[in-house]
């Protein structure tokens, strides 16, 4: 049961010294996400799933062996991408991962990473949703920054 004060939308923001297009390529290519996943959740995603549009579905395998289908529900090339995960072959469970990129001058981008579980109804996922903190999202941002700022 959720308490009234429970936050169901968590986010983290970081300025990254890289162009938005370069950062977006890492986010929009699921096969590259396991390398910078700060939630320690994604084990593997096959190559060739680069997101192109709303309605795309990409698949990831989690560290626990479960497979997630991810339905893209927001997409603006170089600026925004969001997806709703589900168990393999099932409808989305009601939570969403979003990345928003805001260019901040030449070669710099503000990146906002959000996890929204306000529509989550699957009781089996509530504990994991509650345990997702802004610090975990910040860890992904730190790893993402390290990946693009070192190139």
From TrEMBL:
Pfam families: Polyketide_cyc2. It comes from the Bacteria. InterPro entries: Polyketide_cyclase/dehydratase, START-like_dom_sf. Gene3D superfamilies: 3.30.530.20. This is SRPBCC family protein. It comes from Flexivirga alba.
